[in-house]
Amino acid sequence: MDNIISIRDITYTYPESGSPAIDHLSLDVKSNEWLSIVGKNGSGKSTLTKLIDGLIEADSGTIEIDGQIINEDNIWEARKKIGIIFQNPDHQFVGATVEDDVAFGLENQGVPRPEMVEEVNHALDMVDMLPYKTRDPQSLSGGQKQRVAIAGVLATKPQIIIMDESTSMLDPKGRKTVLDLVKRLRDEQDMTIISITHDIEETQLSERIVIIDDGKVVKDGLPEVIYDLGSELTKFGLEEPFSSKLAQSLRTDFKLPEGFLNEEELVNSIWKLSSKM
Amino acid sequence: MNKLILGRYLPGDSLIYKLDPRGKFLITFYFIGIVFLANNVLSYGFLLLFVLFAVYLSKINLGFFLKGLRPMFWLILFTVLLQMFFTPSNDPLWSFGILTLSKEGMIISAYIFVRFVLIIFVSTLLTLTTTPIEISDSIESILKPLKAIKFPVTQVALMLSIALRFVPLLIDETTKIMDAQRARGVDFGEGGLIKRIKSFVPILIPLFVSSFSIAYDLAIAMESRGYKDGEGRSKYRILKWEKRDTVAAIVMILITIILLMIRSY
Predict the structure, then answer these.
(1) Do A247 and A202 sit in the same domain of this protein?
(2) Looking at beta carbons, which residues of chain B come within 8 Å of A104?
(3) DSSP B116-134
(4) For labeling, which of A52, A228, A275, B18 is most exposed (least CB within 10 Å)?
(5) Touching check for A22 and chain B: CB below 8 Å?
(6) CA torsion sign, A202 to A206 to A209 to A215?
(7) Structural domain harbouring A53
């Protein structure tokens, strides 16, 4: 698979801060990959999102998107390939109704109206929000708002979707619907997903996890490998996954297989133990 | 805040709602203009009947319009009383010092009262039947000719629609901040004037800070969705001028003609 994003040795320091938010960071993202970027608050995750989308400019280093190094001339082209869903659904609505908001990205691209109407309906249908088309975004629940935001991103057909802590303000049910939706979309539309979060439980759908701390990549690996770090995760301000904590406390009394067990594996091994007794 | 009827939108589905907002907007202003053509009982009666008919067509309860009068009550009372007692007359019914009460004065104050009611009813009708976003759309298309003198019409329109979009959000924010400050013991609406003004500081400062941070987030979100400078954008919302809008315009012309005929010179 090709790299859709490759970041080479970028550094970024906020004007008002002394230490760099991103410190000589390099990262490759493969096409159609689901990558999770985790790290504690202030580790530079959101800054990285803004750098990738060219919303802020790196002090040094290069970012390549779909084979093109981004600079001031091609940033708008690159931005068309990236859709970002932000943390607070309330602050990313531009339109006064759901359909207006979904159409905003298309309006910016100068898409003619008949095409827009079709795209908007299609995008809203994909996220199952078509009946809410004419509603005021303010009257929707948090999960519904994020679905509308996803529709807005989908309407412009990006290759990459970045979720910048998009589920952190949702309740468990809203979170689940949004994550399931993104998973379904990726399978159907062949998109690359970068999910940024500080909750390790949210990385379970991903294929690769990158931990960043102090603006640097400190761990990069398959989920099993990362989850197996166990208590080492707390060093980076992260919590251990629930199944790993449970397995840990069971291991003192019972003989469970070594290595990381996800929920299903844990359930199976507990069943095995109980049938042996 | 929910007491204020003026400027509020009431969802509905009658004929008046379906009219093109641009037409409604212009007609409202035009109507306010021609109200000043009326100068006798017949012409005022005619306009009043017309407005009541429009209210009837909107299928909105008359009570909402009467509530719309409420914030203007003191102004109306003040103007009417002033006219009633300070109109000079050769044949006063009653006079005391500079105060005179005469038949002419009473008629003029009745006219002024009707004039107030007409203007307030018509503007309430506009805001009750037109969503804020429709109003901002019509302002945009009415301002469009100003593009010729390099007036940034698209930007102003976007600014208006964002401002309108944020009114409910900021009201929510204000209520939340007020509750949070109440939970910490701030007492709103108590004590003397100075104390009351001071108690607004803990609302205003967080509100300012949060509106700036919302603005920043929104700007980032807009830019990431490809917003450059408003030029070269297409429009999703379109306004359609239909037969009924032409009819409404013709009705206004007829009203002007009738008014010119029945007014006294």
Answers:
(1) no
(2) 222, 225, 227, 236
(3) HHHHHHHHHHHHHHS-HHH
(4) A275
(5) no
(6) negative
(7) 3-240
Cβ-Cβ contacts under 8 Å, B237 against chain A: 100
Question: In which band, very low, low, confident or very high, does the pLDDT at A227 lie, cut at 50, 70 and 90?
Answer: confident
Residue A68 shares a structural domain with residue A186: yes
Question: A95 and B225: CB-CB below 8 Å?
Answer: no
Question: Quick check: B49 contacting A, CB < 8 Å?
Answer: no
Q: Which residues contact A17 (CB under 8 A, 6 or more apart)?
A: none
- pLDDT value of residue B4: 52
Residue A110: which CATH number?
Answer: 3.40.50.300
Interval A66-122: pLDDT, tens: 888 888 888 888 888 999 998 888 888 888 789 989 999 998 888 899 999 999 999
The domain tally of chain A equals: 2
Structure confidence at residue B2 (pLDDT): 47
Closest CA to B12 of B52, B51, B64: B64
Q: Report the predicted TM-score, pTM, of the whole model to 2 decimal places.
A: 0.77
**C-alpha distance from residue B195 to each of B33, B179, B206 (Å):** 44, 18, 19
Interface size A-B, in CB pairs within 8 Å, comes to 92
The C-alpha angle B176, B179, B181, rounded to 5 degrees, equals 110
Q: Which of A165, A201, A207, A258 is catalytic?
A: A165
Q: Determine the pLDDT at residue B1.
A: 41
Q: Is A36 helix (H, G, I), strand (E, B) or coil?
A: strand
Q: What is the mean pLDDT of residues B163-173?
A: 81
* B217:A86 CB<8 A: yes
Nearest neighbour of B234 by CB, restricted to A82, A90, A110: A110
With an 8 Å Cβ cutoff, is A223 touching chain B?
Answer: no
* pLDDT digit string, tens, across residues B34-47: 998 888 889 999 99
pLDDT tens, position by position, A29-71: 988 889 999 888 888 888 898 899 888 888 888 898 888 888 8
Q: Which residues contact A100 (CB under 8 A, 6 or more apart)?
A: A94, B133, B236, B237
- Residues from chain A that touch B159, judged by Cβ atoms under 8 A, are none
Measure B213 CA to nearest chain A CA, in Å: 9
A158-172, B151-165, B244-258: range with lowest mean pLDDT? B151-165
Query: CB distance from B123 to chain A under 8 Å?
Result: no
Smallest CA–CA distance, residue B217 to chain A, in Å, is: 6
Same domain (yes/no): A198, A250: no
- Domain residues of chain B, as ranges? 15-130+241-262, 143-225
pLDDT band at B7 (very low <50, low <70, confident <90, very high): low
Q: In sequence order, which ranges of chain A are alpha helices (DSSP H)?
A: 45-52, 75-80, 98-108, 113-126, 142-155, 172-189, 223-227, 242-251, 263-276
